[in-house]
């Protein structure tokens, strides 16, 4: 690794130290986090707040396509399980209605800079219906130059018609779910996908000229060991994706009943999980990738790493993104939007969502308007999560305050972390050190006013 990249290296793990910080905490894809959204945020409020969004910011659209043929036992997403595709046509028609209704209240000069199709399994939807949705997007919006348009793929659900759709060039970024190549692990989580099929999918997408391919992996699944997962990591390096997401499996059977099908005794121990992730970081960083943060890796010429370097990286419900200045609008059941000083979320169940769009034009059932204090703390948390450094003067000038006085309690909570060499507290800045990047959620929690109010009683995944 060259000298310029050394500052992004992660040192060998101090496992005992890291485990001391293992406790439930938010992933900070928003602040306030979703458990603090309120159902007092109604459709009328949503419409009024959307109308306030000016032309100075671009638009980003997230389309939630929640259908899956069967349940993956590790999954924490909002999914509608069915083998019957009959409902998909009505669902796509409803999404198009919602899209048109949104465009009707949105500033006409806003340009579309980002589109993402997530799920569920977006490719559960027949290609002809996905094409109908893409055509509606093109009809309703003017695109900015070089927009980012992505879709999540399950290789098991791809047809020749899907590849023909991808050939037309609308999508330029693809994300492939893999999780683990080990068949024993796949059977244990009810998601069997052959190595051959994955490699074939990758080759076809590259032949279509895909601008960027991401792969999703999960560590901490049943029967995984450092040695077994090393095989998967070596195969991913062979595939040579542009980005990689390696998610920490959150085992929450009390919140997600289908996870009870996973036997706790088959899960790797906390120490083994850390050894697995240490191997993951070491393997990828020795093979041309940089650890962006949390669970993301990117090549050094990728936009994510460039944004990390120039401090423009952002985080939202889609994870790390380079489109932080855009107003994000969620389309579809359970979709979450982030725009102006608001978050909004649609109804979760597919049929409820369809009925609401038919009767009310929109389907928002909860959200939140951020207070001045929320905006301030969100800014701090995002800077720490995305840039690993916070310059106090920037906050002081933007919000007209004295940082050390305003956040005296937060700084006190950070001092033990400084003693553990996770960060440095200086007169002009807070800087997250390499080992602290693994525990950046814990660092950000020191600035979370909501956790302090409810004494952390909300249920979150563990930080390690």
Briefly summarize what is shown:
This protein has 464 residues and is an alpha/beta fold. It has helices at residues 15-20, 43-52, 86-105, 127-140, 160-167, 183-188, 195-207, 226-239, 270-285, 303-309, 350-360, 372-387, 392-399, 403-406, 408-419, 440-445, 449-454; strands spanning 59-65, 67-68, 80-81, 111-119, 142-153, 173-179, 212-219, 243-248, 289-293, 296-299, 314-316, 319-321, 327-331, 336-339, 342-346, 364-369, 389-391, 423-425, 429-432.
How does this structure look, described?
The protein folds into two domains: about 35-370, pyruvate-formate lyase- activating enzyme (Alpha-Beta Horseshoe), CATH 3.80.30; about 370-450, Arc Repressor Mutant, subunit A (Orthogonal Bundle). It is about 40% helix and about 20% strand. It has 17 helices and 19 strands. The protein has helices at about 15-20, 45-50, 85-105, 125-140, 160-165, 185-190, 195-205, 225-240, 270-285, 305-310, 350-360, 370-385, 390-400, 405, 410-420, 440-445, 450-455; strands at about 60-65, 65-70, 80, 110-120, 140-155, 175-180, 210-220, 245-250, 290-295, 295-300, 315, 320, 325-330, 335-340, 340-345, 365-370, 390, 425, 430. A hairpin with a 2-residue loop joins strand 14 and strand 15 (about 340-345). Helix 3 (about 85-105) crosses helix 11. It is globular, with a radius of gyration of 22 Å. The chain starts with 14 loop residues before the first helix and ends in a 10-residue tail after the last helix. The mean pLDDT is about 95.
């Amino acid at each position: 690794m060259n000298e310029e990249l050394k500052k992004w290296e992660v040192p060998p793990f101090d496992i005992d130290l890291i485990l001391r910080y293992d406790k439930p905490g938010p992933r900070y894809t928003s602040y306030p986090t979703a458990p603090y959204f309120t159902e007092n945020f109604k459709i009328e409020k949503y419409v009024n707040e959307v109308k306030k969004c000016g032309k100075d910011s671009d638009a980003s659209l997230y389309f939630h396509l929640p259908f899956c043929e069967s349940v993956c036992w590790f999954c924490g997403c909002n999914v509608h399980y069915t083998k019957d595709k009959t409902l998909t046509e009505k669902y796509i028609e409803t999404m198009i209605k919602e899209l048109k209704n949104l465009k009707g209240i949105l500033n006409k000069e806003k340009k579309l800079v980002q589109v993402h199709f997530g799920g569920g399994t977006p490719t559960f939807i027949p290609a002809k219906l996905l094409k109908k949705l893409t055509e509606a997007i093109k009809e309703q919006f003017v695109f900015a130059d070089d927009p980012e348009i992505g879709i999540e793929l399950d290789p098991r659900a791809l047809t020749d018609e899907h590849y023909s759709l991808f050939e037309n060039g609308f999508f330029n970024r693809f994300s492939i779910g893999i999780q683990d190549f080990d068949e024993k692990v796949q059977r244990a989580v009810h998601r069997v996908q052959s190595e051959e099929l994955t490699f074939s999918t990758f080759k076809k997408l590259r032949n279509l000229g895909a601008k960027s391919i991401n792969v999703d992996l999960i560590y901490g699944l049943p029967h995984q060991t450092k040695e077994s997962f090393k095989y998967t990591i070596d195969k991913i390096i062979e595939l040579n994706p542009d980005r990689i997401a390696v998610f920490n499996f959150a085992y929450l059977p009390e919140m997600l009943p289908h996870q009870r099908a996973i036997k706790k005794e088959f899960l790797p121990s906390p120490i083994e999980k850390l050894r697995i992730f240490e191997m993951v970081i070491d393997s990828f960083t020795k093979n041309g990738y940089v650890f962006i943060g949390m669970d993301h890796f990117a090549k050094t010429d990728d936009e994510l790493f460039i944004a990390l370097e120039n401090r423009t990286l952002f985080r939202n419900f889609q994870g790390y993104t380079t489109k932080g200045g855009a107003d994000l609008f969620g389309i579809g059941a359970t979709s979450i939007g982030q725009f102006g000083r608001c978050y909004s979320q649609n109804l979760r169940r597919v049929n409820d969502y369809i009925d609401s769009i038919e009767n009310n034009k929109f389907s928002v059932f909860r959200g939140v308007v951020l207070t001045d204090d929320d905006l301030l703390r969100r800014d701090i948390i995002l800077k720490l999560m995305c840039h690993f450094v916070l310059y106090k003067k920037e906050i002081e000038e933007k919000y007209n305050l004295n940082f050390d006085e305003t956040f005296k309690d937060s700084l006190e909570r950070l001092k033990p972390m400084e003693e553990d060499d996770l960060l440095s507290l200086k007169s002009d800045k807070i800087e997250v050190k390499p080992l602290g990047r693994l525990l950046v959620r814990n660092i950000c929690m020191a600035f979370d006013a909501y956790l302090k109010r409810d004494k952390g009683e909300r249920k979150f995944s563990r930080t390690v």
